[in-house]
Amino acid sequence: MRILCLLITLGALSFSSFCQESQRYPPKDMAALQALPATFERCWNDHNMDSMGTMLTEDVDFINVAGTWLKGKTATVYDHKDSHSMMFKNSVFTNDSVNIKYVKSDLAIIHVGWGITGDLDADGTPRKPRHGIFTWVVIKTKGQWLLLAVSNVNIRATTSQPK
């Protein structure tokens, strides 16, 4: 009977480690996580991609809205500097929503809803304002939260009506 109780207790404890809803980050970490989207917005709107680079791990995987997979901080910063020299030169980026999901004490997922205006197509044609969603995997390294993986998508208007 003791063994059965022990097994049930161990099973319940190990199952609870997979149920993250009750977990929370300490206030200092929550403040740092909540500040990341605002920092990204400021770097974007200042068109300062070197500053944006300070938010990234050295080995970041960054998939931009066009589906290009940028591997590493150097490639990501270079690509953003290039695109901000013309296509995003006068763009204004805004955060619409932020949702932080607990994964573990040094790892989080952040979904950032965003809007952008003032950007151009490759041929210089002004784009219509648009919205999208970032998914960020962030890791706490040496006391600092950094972007480890990023995926970015546009939200497209549906063309068909529900039946």
What is the rounded Rg? 20 Å
H/E topology pattern: HHHEEHEEEE
Beta-strand percentage range: 35-45%
The residue-averaged pLDDT reads: 88
Features:
globular, 6 strands, Nuclear Transport Factor 2, Chain: A, 163 residues
Protein architecture, described:
This protein has 163 residues and is an alpha+beta fold. The protein has a single domain, classed as Nuclear Transport Factor 2, Chain: A. The chain is 31% helix and 36% strand. It has a 6-stranded mixed sheet with strand order 2-1-6-5-4-3. A hairpin with a 2-residue loop joins strand 3 and strand 4. The protein starts with a helix and ends in a 9-residue tail after the last strand. About 9% of the residues have low confidence.
